[in-house]
Predict the structure.
Amino acid sequence: MANIDSVKQALRQRATETSSSPRQPLSDTQYSAGFDTLVRGSGWMTYEEFIIPQLSQLLAPLSNSRIHISVLEIGPGPKSVLGYLPIRLRRKISRYVAFEPNGLLAANLEEWLCSTSEMESPLPCLESPPDIHRIPFDLNNHTGSGTGISTSDADEKYDIILFCHSMYGMKPKHKFIERARKMLVERPEGGMVVVFHRDGALHFDGLLCHRTASFPTGVVRVANDNEVLDRFAAFMAGFVMQEVEEQKALRVEWRKVCRALGHREEAPLDHLSFSLPNVMAAFTQHATALPELMAQMPLLKGNKTVKNREARLHHPASVVRPTKVRHVQQCVLWALKHGAGLTVVGGGHSGHCLWSNVVAVDMGAFNRVRIFTAGADGGDSGSDSGPFVVAEAGCKTGDIVSKTMAAGVIVPLGARPSVGAGLWLQGGIGHLARLHGLTCDAIVGAVVVSVDSSQLLCVGRVPSQCQPAGAVRPENEADLLWAMKGAGSNFGIVVSVTFKAYAAPTYSIRNWVVPLSNDLEARLKLSEFDNLVAMKLPRNCSADAYLYWDAGQLRLGATMFESSTTGFTTAMPTATPANAIWGPEDSFKVVDSVDLFETEMYMSVMHGGHGGGKTSSFKRCLFLKRIGAANLADRLVAAVKVRPSPLCYLHLLQGGGAVGDVAADATAFGCRDWDFACVVTGIWSRDQDGAEAARAAVRWVYNVAADLLPFSSGAYGADLGPDPRDTALAAKAFGPNRPRLARLKHSSDPRSVLAYACPLPGAPMAPKLIILVTGEIGAGKDYCAEVWVSVFTACTHKSLTARAVSISDATKGEYAAATDADMNRLLWDRDYKEQHRPALTAFYQGQLRQRPRLPEEHFQNVVHSAVDVDVLLITGMRDEAPVAALSHLVPDSRLLEVRVEASEVARRVRRGYHGGDDGGDDYKDSKDNKDSKSHNPNLMALDYRPCLVFDNNTTGNEAAKRFAEHYLLPFFHEDLQRLANMVRAVPCFPRPGIEFRHVLNISQQPGGLGLCTSMLQAQFTGDWAEVGVVVCCEAGGFVYASALALRVDMPLALIREAGKLPPPTISIVKPQSHISSSASNDSREKRIEMERDIIPRGTPVVVVDDVLATGETLCAVLQLLDEAGIGPEDVSIMAVAEFPVHRGRELLRRRGFGRANIQSLLVFGGA
Ligand SMILES: Cc1cc2nc3c(=O)[nH]c(=O)nc-3n(C[C@H](O)[C@H](O)[C@H](O)COP(=O)(O)OP(=O)(O)OC[C@H]3O[C@@H](n4cnc5c(N)ncnc54)[C@H](O)[C@@H]3O)c2cc1C
């Protein structure tokens, strides 16, 4: 499949060859029609799978720290991609300016953005109309306010400047980026210039990327139809001929080019596919910070090429080569200061050691290997006295092997001498693995530069001679050492590693090559190899197999390695199980660890030995069991048969033995249960690097990996990267350790300095459960919060983490800074705090007048500093109805308010004699303070209902514990997760940009309806005995309410569209629900009705609905109930799923239904 760039070149070339008449640029109509061929259909996939997720990820921190976002977009086309971002990001965009020189596209864009239909506007919170300039963005123009172009010096500034559809025609590109960078808002920092470019490479001279990503798998499919190809070809070439007849002739030629280069697929529709790689580069104010680093750092001299061909295609911003640990620390400090990422170069064998426009830190100067025989490590090795090997991070496998062997010891390493630190930090599978384990299992200590603080850290055993001055032991030392063993490229820049060493063995090596005449024989021989040879071997032996094609025939190569520390006699090989089956070996050798490298079958036997030498490779590795079983053996054979080039092969390295002795969660390398590591190896001739042959080999590797994945027990994390085809493999790497690794990554590399190492799952963006603990002063909120933290953390079978924080601490800090008050005493000294209470209240009120959104800001800050816990309890809240007001800010979390109630006597006693409960209410407004002095608990005075109320009138913590066990822990019940798993996510339904959650799908799953209704029954916080009727509105509500009514043995009250129920009825007008309004343009309001007198006045009811989104439906139901004489205080709402982003609770409260109790079984962050 030809790359789109080569198509463009070929089209231009053909025009030059066939016509000499003048060319003319495309008209607006021609450009617009061509653009359409590119983004339509499969081209949209690039948006869906790359541009939208990358943009959402980049904007998320910005959206968390800003109330509003202003955007300038360059060349958006007929619709802005921003309109397809998640709704919570779209709602933040308050200003939109664009440069779209194509008048037609600009008009479409304007119409689309200003859409006034019932469908939600793409950017619903714009504070002024979109400002679309119908001219190109150039290096001089200015955007002022209004619709025209201003030349005023007071240029408008933006939080985001987006080049979404490539930077073609903008030269030099870095000048455009620099121009845009100057248009970013300077304070607060965090604004970005973001470029998406339709091409594999995007090089910005001397500029530093904040983040970069690539999407190599993009494809565009164009209908194989003359007219469509004409539009496409003209758009790609960028011109047409002035002469009509010449253009006609050229069209024919262009169609031929497209058909010759496109990959044709006839079903379901006849079309041609072209590869359309895409890259993203994001720049901040710091894009010009490179010289600062280069001035203080040794740079790589000469043109060192790394081994990996993928990495070689990248153009790093700079490659620095630290020679001292201090230099590495300076790199990190610089990266932290400028929000930059870094890559680290070890042996250079992965595709991720160099990234375009990112600084690479080459560790090559750290190349010492030091050996500490028993007791020679300065007594730092504890009970296990060695021997140990300390290898610096620039060492290669070959360096370590040759130096240690000279001292009579060995570290179990891999099969190639040139491979570097990436191997031991991410696993390390070699011929001694069955005897001594993986390389990472031998790691007992490390010296690491923290990418959080740039501090030098020592973890585990590091001989005193190897501890650099100033190194400290981190608090999370055990975690970090654990992570070094299998995921070590993600948690800091490793300076050196201490390995446990073993006595150096010699090896006997035997090779067999078995020709395979057909598939059946292939399966039989693999089965023999697995069952009769490999499985029979003791731990000091391992057997590798190769499935490859040579001289027109499929072959099975087998190598048996036997290690011994007492030596072999070279004269006479002893018989092995393989001899009994395959006869005498083709070759037999006894070698030491250095010569072992050359005995690899790939190096010495297959394809005439190393494929002639000038080759490049791409590998992915899966862990397999029972390779001789028919289903697997057939797949392995089939894979080799469809290899795209003769040199591609499968390498099966034997595991088991010591690899499996280690528990999956004992080290970060969590895949332990396998017999063979299957390395799918794509090879091509080196002169084809970057060409179709290379792409085909890579595609083959991924296809085979995808085919084997369902039969595998894991994937090797080494070298997995951001390629979307790695996602499924990464999900199976690290076994059960992914959540722990994600949390550790978040805490050890919070600013993603090592953003390009093996991708770990993202840490949750917010705690799963956020509990706002409210109540009056002295009610015991802080005390209860701490008790509840202990209940969550003590619940060991769920291994939950929980923390309580006071939201008022931020204000106390600002008050202390402004007034010289003592912050510590404000936090801990109750009398001191009481003295300052009036001033603190006045200070807060003053701040609130200046920053009306302060409560939201504080809330978001508190939540975002606690993403490392499952449960966050927040005290010190001062907002009324905080769940209604704040839940849309944390749409992925369940937000609850638990109000702590206590009698005035109890509160007075606690205020007087206990130091615990201050709850931050110190600066509550006077109304609240007045309320707190009233005689009765304040519940009835509230115009809304807290989610839960805890009566804290008894002493001791038993009641609080029971409350948490009964009401709070059930939010982590596994049945809720089962239920959530039944809600299918459907992307782009009912329209692009919406990820539809199919909540009704629960009822279509076996056992789904029963599970859902039992949870509705169990999670109800009221008393079923007091409920009289279950109320529901068609259609979703009917499904769940009927089943629930049956279960709790209660009558139903049905609410239907007007005209469907017999008189007498009562009715009200109901606006459309969120999803129906997205699905259709029908904006008519509907009436809904209920039979009059079906519910006696004042009866407590439970309203059941499938979804709580905008709340319009529930408002209508509550209004109808109100008409029927049932007030909100008698209504409990139970929704199966809630989408807080639509602020349904807020609407209910605004419409006067705040006193209804609302509960949702599931909470979803999507739209
Ligand atoms: C020809 C070949 C043979 C191989 N043989 C084996 C084998 O026998 N057994 C096996 O298990 N694997 C093997 N591999 C896989 C190999 O382990 C990985 O490719 C590994 O990532 C290579 O590490 P490197 O240091 O050479 O590469 P690099 O690209 O330099 O590094 C790989 C990763 O580690 C990170 N990294 C490197 N140094 C540091 C550091 N000091 N601190 C933090 N991060 C760092 C890099 O940033 C990068 O993300 C082989 C690969 C190839 C290409």
